From TrEMBL:
Keyword Ribosomal protein carried by entry: no
Transmembrane segments: 25-54, 66-92, 104-124
Source species of the chain: Rothia nasimurium
Keyword ATP-binding: no
Gene Ontology terms: cellular component: plasma membrane
Alphabetical UniProt keywords: Membrane, Transmembrane, Transmembrane helix
Record-given protein name: DUF805 domain-containing protein
Signal peptide as annotated in the record: none
Highest taxon of the lineage: Bacteria
Amino acid sequence: MVQALKLNKKYLWHFSGRASRSEFWWAYLVWTVGTSLVVLVAYLVWIIAMFVVFSRTENSQDTSTFFVVGAVLFLLLGVALTILSIIFTLSVCWRRLQDAGFPGALWFLNLVGLGIVPFIMCMLDSSPDGLRYDKPEDVNRP
């Protein structure tokens, strides 16, 4: 696990070469669990804060303002996590698709609502056809 995460960090901006299934899945798992925890903590903090504000205020203007501010902050958190998700998973998914023998550009199916297709392709075994995506400096890379 640690080796796979180190490789993911080291080759974060490399789109040539290939990524093993373990490198892809460990990075994907850590990212998914990490973002889920961030969202869960933010949601719990917002709910607790809403209970505190609603129980202490008689003014509906204050409560509606608090609700709108919280909703906007959640929207911004969602946008930030989406952008970070694209950054952190794009290259490893691209290389994983190449390792399975598919063009890495199939990752863009995620942007048109067909994200399940590259996700399933990333589950496939490594293919010798993936060698065509290696540059000379990528041949003996772990």
